[in-house]
Fold this sequence. Notes:
Layout: H1 10-30, E1 35-38, H2 44-49, E2 53-55, H3 57-66, H4 70-79, H5 88-98, E3 117-121, H6 127-139, E4 143-146, H7 157-168, H8 170-178, H9 184-206, H10 217-223, H11 225-229, H12 234-252, E5 263-268, H13 276-285, E6 288-293, H14 294-297, H15 309-319, H16 326-339, E7 344-350, H17 363-371, E8 375-380, H18 390-408
Parallel strand pairs: 1-2, 1-3, 3-4, 5-6, 5-7, 7-8
Helix pairs in contact: 3-5, 4-5, 7-15, 9-12, 16-17
The chain binds iron/sulfur cluster.
Amino acid sequence: MAEIVKLQSVSHLRKTMDDYFVRLKDATETGSKKIAWCTSVGPAELLYSMGFEVYFPENHGAMLGAAKVADNYIPIAVAQGYSPDICSYLTSDVGAFLANETPLQKSGLASVPKPDVLVYNTNQCGEVQDWFEYYAKHFDVPIFGIITPLKINELTETIISGVAKQIEELVPELEKISGIKFDLDKFKETTRLSHDGCVLWRQVLETAQNLPAPINFFDSAIHMGPIVVMRGTKYAVDYYKILLAELEDRIKNNIAAVPTEQIRIYWDGMPLWYKLSSMAKLFSGLDTCVVASTYCNSWVFDDLDPENPFYSAGLAYCKLFIVRSDEEKQKVLEKLMDDFSIDGIIYHDSKTCARNSNNRFGLPVRLQESTNIPYLEINGDLNDSRCFSEEQSIIAIETFIDQLKSRKQ
Ligand code: SF4
């Protein structure tokens, strides 16, 4: 089996994430800062600028998946009337909450940090609203939502300004909760830090355009933690400078994530969190590097502009891949296929996340017609391992990669 070359930056990553959880713990225990819960592509910059510590339940859901414990908790939420067909981040997170268990206990937190306010954006999906409403009701705290149109084709002025206005309207409500007066300069600063962190994260992902790629999707899925939970802070910026330097060094020294790289794959959709390392080994053993994914690219908000923070937030959070029409997604993917020299596409049809499964409305066929790049669809789920038939998927992946190798020869 081919070797996987581990990134040295992982120790810095661990420290960056540990420090983040310590800040949440301190805020919880001392009350020194109010705590806002936010969706992963919600207005983190505004919340950080207004003095909140920001907690992301989706990150918690991914932690439960990666720790392979989500299956213990999903039935608990199902017993409370939540369908097993809805987002398994939601069901595993709510189930763990009801069981009073969390991987955060390893970081010294007794439980998830109690929110003072919850803020969501429906740009990714509507399920986050139901998810956050559960906790708003449980903790009896205020909840605010930004409602974003879906399947956006042309990104019009009306759409951008409409979302920007909703973000701006949060300010007086958040002031009441945080007790801190909104400061435009602070918001400009968190917007600048978010922009800079996103640019660095984009550069990290773009290093995989190199042949061979110095980083693969399975690494990126782990190293994306800071851009999800610390967007708008210097901690994310500092971390991605370290990671980028390591990857540039790898390129200079011709060090590949998969040393025997022959085939380059684009992964569409969510990771299989509970199978991250075995999938990394599987692909590596097939001389294959998964060099790109729209999932990791989802946290590139480089349109954020500190000189125009509200408007540019409206733009950045509506331009996101997941909010766009299939026509726009196809254009993004066509460019990506070229930029990353892709040989084949794997679509992960994630049972409980329709919005991140782009294979359901003909896109694979249309994309194959326009790019002549073959594809494979596998069925699974982000957190619910019972939806993933491992043996069948491994056979399908092995056969697909064999075909790509023959095609290349
Ligand atoms: S986008 Fe998918 S994974 Fe994320 S919260 Fe919505 S349903 Fe869950």
